[in-house]
What we know:
Layout: H1 2-31, H2 51-55, H3 60-67, E1 75-77, H4 81-89, H5 97-100, H6 105-108, H7 117-124, H8 127-140, H9 142-147, H10 149-167, H11 172-176, H12 183-209, H13 216-222, H14 233-246, H15 257-274, H16 280-283, E2 292-295, E3 301-304, E4 309-311, H17 314-317, H18 363-380, E5 381-385, E6 392-393, E7 400-401, E8 407-411
Parallel strand pairs: 1-4
Antiparallel strand pairs: 2-3, 5-8, 6-7
Amino acid sequence: MEMEVMENKFFNVGLLVVATLLVAKIISALIMPRSNKRLPLVIKAWPPLIGGLLRFPKGPIIVLREEYPKLSNNITFLIGPEVSTHLFKVSESDLSRQEVYRFNVPNFGPGVVFDEQFCFFTKALRVNKLKGYVDQMVVEAQASCLLGREVRDKLFDDVSALFHEHDNGMQPISVMFPYLPIPAHCHRDRARKRLIEIFASIIASRKAFGKCEDDMLQCFIDSKYKNSRPPSEGEVTGPLIAALFAGQHTTYLLRFKEYFVAVVEEQKTLMKKHGEKIDHDILSEMESHTDFSVTTHEGKEYDIPKGHIVVTSLAFANRLSHIYKNPDSYDPNRFAPRRDEDTVAGPFLYIFFGGSRHRCLGEPFVYLQIKAIWSHLLRNFELELISPFLETDWNAMVVGVKGKVMARYKRRRLSANGL
Length: 419
């Protein structure tokens, strides 16, 4: 009861803060001078100024599909290869990632995944490190190769629950108001504090007993800043949280029998060549795919004012009908040779991992992990989807599905020459 009263109090305070900010925004919009620049088109919705923001939690696909043919306030969406070049290739001095990603400070800590900590990730995701992660991926998925043996052996349930609570603290409203005192943010802050305590204990134990493990946690522990200072426990925990946050992915494979059969056949081909072995080199044989002005593909020019936040929508940009045939259909073959829909019309067509200066450092890790886990599952289990494939949950910043996806499985050993 006490917790409910406290959360209601936080919610009321949050509403008051939002209302105050919205009133200030309306007043500023009325008194700001008009510009003669060719400004981007603005999403029109009721009520004025905030209508688009209220629509967005329903999912970017719905909003952008409605507005893209017509088409932002201080957030400018650059969607499509014709206008994405500036977003992906411009220097940090022109488009500051740090400034935009301030909303992530409560999630990962100050400076995390920026500045010198980029080097921490680069070191942890080198090919020589990835080669050592494969066995752990197959046996324990992410728990061991990212979080460490101690979490896997003794604390996995606790840490998993804390990460889940932390993930739920990232809501669409968190992008605009990361410190808003709502229940989700309160749970997020408590979870992060407890995670730092857990990893501080693990780090202290490794240092005290001179232990050195082959995992990402150890890479972060051993890293040094340019001034030779080692990262603090919080500066180690933050990148780990960021790595797990960025490393979540959803597969539609069980929903489409023709592609499921194809990947099982791919495993048989690998087994004929390499037997039961799974390692980095074998998995590499599996197919994977890897104040300025902009001009749209219709030839329209827009001036992006200084101070605007420039973003793209990966989900919608990869569903543009003038680039992809039947873009809403699950069709992995669109990336196959002779179709090459992701490259045939130029750069920045397929941007699920960003591009150029904004390319995801974890892309090799993600592909390796998906291949390793699915190789193990396909070789050892028959799998069948028995529940409807559920609706996409656009309210979560890490997009998954609403509810539970149920699958039937039966243990069996896949033979290279047949089942």
